Amino acid sequence: MSPVGPLLLATFLFCAGVYGIIARRNAVLVLLSVELMLNAVNINLVTFQNLIFPDDPAVTGQMFALFIIGVAAAEVGVGLAIVFNMFRNRASVDVDDADLMRW
Amino acid sequence: MDVLLDYAWVVVALPLLSSALITAFGKRLPGKGSELGIASLAISWLLAVGIAWETFVNSPIEPVERAIDWSPLGGGFVLELGILVDGLTAVMMLLVTTVSFMVHVYSREYMHGEVRFTYFFAMLSLFTFSMLLLVVSNNLLQAVIGWELVGLCSYLLIGFYWEDKSNQDAGNKAFMTTKFGDVGLIVGVIVLSAGMFSMTDTPFNILEINEAAAAGQLGTTTVVLGMLLIFLGCISKSGQMPLHVWLPDAMAGPTPVSALIHAATMVTAGVFLLARLFPVVAQSQAVMTTIAIFGVITLFFGGLLALVQDDLKKILAYSTISQLGYMVAAIGVGGYTASIFHLFTHGFFKALLFLAAGSLIHAVHTNNISEMGGLARAMPHTFWTFIVGSLALAGFPLTAGFFSKDEILIAGDIWADAGFFTGSLVYWIGLAAAFVTTFYMARACFLIFAGEHRGHHTPHESGKLILAPLMVLAVLSVASGYLLSPFSPEQPNFETWTATPILDAEASYPFVLEAEASALGVIGDGVQASGPVLAAEKEGPVKVLHGVPTWHPDLLAMVLVLFSAAVFLAYRFYGKGLPEKDPTLSMGRFTDILVAKYGFDDFGYRYIVVPVRDKLSAAASYSSNVLIDGVVAGVGRATKNVATTTYRVVDQQMIDGGINGAAFSAAWWSEKLKRIQSGDVQKYAGVLVAGTIVLVLAFAAVR
What we know:
The structure holds two protein chains of two kinds.
Chain A: H1 4-23, H2 27-52, H3 60-90
Chain B: H1 3-6, H2 8-25, H3 34-57, E1 64-69, E2 80-85, H4 87-110, H5 117-136, H6 140-158, H7 165-196, H8 206-214, H9 220-237, H10 246-249, H11 255-264, H12 269-276, H13 278-281, H14 285-305, H15 312-332, H16 336-364, H17 375-378, H18 380-394, H19 400-417, H20 421-449, H21 464-479, H22 494-498, H23 510-519, H24 526-538, H25 553-574, H26 589-595, H27 600-673, H28 681-702
Antiparallel strand pairs in B: 1-2
């Protein structure tokens, strides 16, 4: 199977994630973009496992992808909690408003 | 008894102690401090008598020298503080303490009720200390210290009545004139010592200098230059012409001071120093001739000045100058013993005359003999003591002055026989001056004691404390002469007393030996060795010590004739009181010259005092106030300007500018840089991505 398709997909997803993080103002959507980037990485891990170590009985790449999915779920939990709290305090989820750590 | 000589320093120290105590506590004591001075002088005097006796009966003795090193300067030579006791020291100590003791006693009554009575006694004691320090010193530097101290005391006591401007001026004149000679003295001492440096590490030691000189180890230049400079000090201190001008003016001081300082002791310091260094003096004919000529000029012309004086103290002052001339001239003609002997006897009879004059002045409240007269009946004791002093001064036979003055004349005669013209000068001019001396003393005596009283006060005899010293000194004025007279034994007499081992009976003058040897045709290396032998075949070389004097009938006859003539002349003129026209004041041009004091004072005033005061002082003041102060102020101002500029430019602008600039630039940059921390997470992320891309591209390119 040619790796080109999955790699192109992963590239698209990653770039979309980056764009989302930089460009979107809504904090929920920024979190969502992070998820996109994580999933691009997952696709890469699975693709390169099959491309470089097709006979690895431990299927390390897939296993790693599973861990990332788990961690990402936890991360979304934490991230959404932060967003909720921010909304409670400021009545807004715009990341531009969250600039307390400036000069 | 020998141990007494070791304690000679006590004689010196006691007056210093009493001076300090009088200054500190004198005013609180019942006697206002006079009892301290009299007591300490009495002890000093007793010790001095003991020392004199000890040195006299055992004479000639080896000098006793005790010294401690005192080198505050360090360096390659040792300064000493010490005493040198021999016959000469003992004679001087005896003279100084005796006269000082008498003057202390006398002053207690004479100065009674005066202002600054306590101060007066403190100064008297301080002077006595200084003079004793000078006479006992074993080295020339210490002698110079004593010399300067007596000069200071003299200055302070001449100006004792300082409320009067003329007294201040007299003090200044004395101080400046003697100071002029002191410069010569100090340079001379240094010259002599410079010649000693290579031989010893105590170059100022008097005994060593004398020994080196006697052994011919000092160069001719050292001896001549050193002694002439030291003699300059003697000229000023011992009132030799032309630096005698201060001495008559010094009579502005209280009369006891005149007796102690300006007649008996301080003014003899110069003669004493010449005697002390006589072995050095004896090395050079040039030095001896110079000394003799100055002495002869002084003894004659100084005496003449007394003829026209009306002030009794000034008559005595000029006679002191004249007698000091005799002493100096005696040194110059090899009359070492004669000079000291005259110094010794003169100290007693001149102190007596001054103290008697003080008694007279006390009684009639004037110094002028023209306002006295007829005092013989009113003041019998003062009368006879004054007459004894006058006879001694005039050299009347069998008084002390006769023996000592004739010693000088005989020394001149011996010197003349050895072929030196100064000897004849001293002999004949000395005789002529004796006539002058007799005449002016007879004039003074007749005007004071004979005839009717011309003053307004009723004269009265002085008290016991004034008369007692007069009587003691009157006895000494006669008795002291018999220490060296035809009646004296071979040993001890005054000559063996003051003789030092260097001046033993065989010593002679090197230039005399050479002259006699060359006269006999001996030339070359044999001169020194064969000189005495060859000379002895003739008459023998002239000795330093002349032996016990014998009677000289010719001299005695001349002295008696001159004395009688002078007294007769004075009686003709003044025997019946003050004549209408005083003969000494009616000698036309001669009187004018004498009244003008040969113009020395005028000359000194016009060509020294005025230029110094108006030109040199002004120039000195200008150089001090304008030049030196200008430079100092200029330096100050320049420093201030440099400091101000430095402050403004370097400190305020450069250093502060740098520090402030650093601070300001940090603030400016931080203002700019803080914008980076915007707090916008997305911006950070964008920069992060851009950075990653740049890094990836960079790695790719490098690969």
